[in-house]
Design brief:
Rossmann fold, about 65% helix, mainly alpha
Length: about 475
């Protein structure tokens, strides 16, 4: 094995260690629970989008098969597909970096992907983002091989497979595909011969994706019509701060100054690399160096424009598949700095240090999005009696269906919490009115996250007036109350 191979192996071992560390320590959260519950539906329900998800069915089909094979018994196993997809992304970004630039740039990109808290976070989540990232990288690798006329037939088949699976996993994969084509168009006549196999491959992708088009149009109409969209309109400069998110994810630790430092460093590194790229006399290097930059920035600003002109669809985690291109852009700058006096390698070292600190924050700091619902439902199940009612008035209601479906967790019907009532019923839940909750024959178990700021605070006060509090349990971000 060559020296680069040993380095790549060490990077993969680092990536595996970070992704498997404390993999099942935190409970599933709302979106993860939605994925698991959709995966438990019948096959035709998953394919037809019966649960009303705004995403295509690819990842849900994977979880359906994964759980059918008996691999859904705990949080560890449910998150395994994301871990393996993330590890594949580390290997693929090395291949893409080596093909675009050289092996040194590929190794630096792989190291950045292995270390980035954003990648670790979504590798430990039962959602489609890690899988979409891996498929996007596979599609990009094959696209570049077609452009370079390297094994065109094999690259064409690989492009069709990865792009189709990517589109069936997350619709935003289309933004990367569009960016690659835009780059090729801007590259001019240099790669004119690559258009024929690429357009042929695009035609095959379109034919295979055709069955999903009707569902995609319906979901798009729901969002652009305002029925499903819940995001606020993004600030025009949000794409620049999103660059920090694509590296660090949710590892801010609640400190605004720490976030500001990271944003400043990321923007500085990107600006310095961009300036050095423009100063290069080698047109080929500038051309290839522009590919990851264009693929990172074009989708961000395009979605901002759509969010202002039509409806807000800008959600930072939906751009997960752009993160490897930002890493590639920075890595090629650090690996191919034009002179020894260039600050890029030193800025890269500073950024790597910040990534390592961010990873520590990710593991050490509590995650408010993932309260310990697993532990809370275990407490309820241990003393649950026939006739009791387990009521949820916030986002814990979906996760409770994963952990203790036999308890029939109920949702207060006034609070839809981003989900239509019929969707909740399809997933196995049930709705109750406040009157039904108060008149329940047995005891009332109330599972609450973030009680103080919710619109149903008055209802909780009414419960306390009409029922006697028997016992209570407290965790970070979560409480359980038993009213006799």
């Amino acid at each position: 094995m060559k020296r680069q191979g040993w380095w790549l192996l060490l990077i993969l071992l680092l990536a595996a260690g970070l992704r498997f560390f404390r993999l099942g320590a935190r409970s599933l959260w709302f979106d993860e629970a939605l994925s698991v519950l959709i995966g438990r539906l019948r096959l035709w329900q998953v394919l037809t989008g019966a649960a009303g998800s705004s995403h295509p069915p690819g990842y849900y089909l994977l979880l359906h098969a994964w759980q059918a094979a008996g691999m859904g018994s705990n949080d560890w196993l449910l998150r395994y597909p994301s871990v393996f997809a993330s590890l594949l992304s580390v290997a693929l970004v090395y291949r893409v970096g080596s093909l675009l630039f050289d092996r040194r740039a590929g190794l630096l990109a792989a190291f950045g992907m292995a270390l980035a808290p954003f990648q670790v976070y979504y590798a430990q989540e039962a959602r489609m983002y890690a899988l979409a990232t891996a498929l996007t990288l596979g599609s990009t690798w094959c696209f570049i091989r077609m452009v370079k006329q390297s094994s065109v037939v094999g690259a064409c088949m690989g492009y069709v497979l990865c792009t189709t699976l990517g589109l069936y996993t997350h619709y935003f994969v289309a933004w990367v595909v569009l960016s690659l084509h835009l780059w090729l168009l801007l590259a001019g006549r240099r790669f004119r011969g690559a258009w024929r196999p690429i357009l042929f491959a695009d035609l095959l992708v379109g034919l295979v994706f055709l069955p999903q088009v009707v569902q995609f149009i319906g979901q798009t109409d729901d969002y652009l019509g305002g029925e499903m969209a819940w995001q606020a309109r993004p600030h025009p400069l949000l794409p620049l701060t999103t660059l920090e998110y694509l590296l660090f994810g949710h590892s801010a630790g609640g400190a605004l100054w720490w976030w500001g430092v990271r944003v400043a460093v990321v923007l500085l590194v990107a600006a310095v690399v961009a300036l050095e790229l423009m100063r290069r006399r080698d047109r080929a290097r500038r051309r290839w160096g522009a590919l990851p930059l264009l693929t990172t920035l074009f989708p961000l600003f395009a979605v901002v424009a759509i969010s202002w002109l039509a409806a807000p669809i800008y959600l930072e985690r939906s751009f997960a598949m752009l993160a490897p291109f930002l890493v590639l852009f920075i890595a090629q700058g650090a690996a191919m700095a034009p002179s020894r006096v260039s600050p890029t390698p030193w800025l890269g070292i500073l950024l790597a240090g910040l990534l390592a600190i961010g990873g520590g924050v990710h593991f050490a700091a509590p995650d408010i999005a993932k309260p310990p619902v697993r532990e809370a439902m275990a407490v309820v199940a241990a003393d649950f009696r026939e006739g009791d009612l387990c009521l949820h008035v916030d986002e814990t209601y979906l996760t409770a269906l994963v952990y203790e479906p036999v308890l029939g967790p109920a949702l207060w019907h006034i609070d839809a919490w981003r989900m239509r009532p019929e969707t909740y019923r399809v997933l196995g839940g049930r709705l109750v009115t406040p009157e039904e909750a108060l008149e329940a024959e047995g005891r009332l178990w109330l599972v609450v996250a973030g009680r103080s700021s919710q619109p149903w605070e008055g209802f909780l006060g009414q419960i306390e007036q009409e029922r006697q509090l028997g016992d209570s349990w407290e965790w970070e971000f979560l409480s359980v109350y038993r009213y006799d």
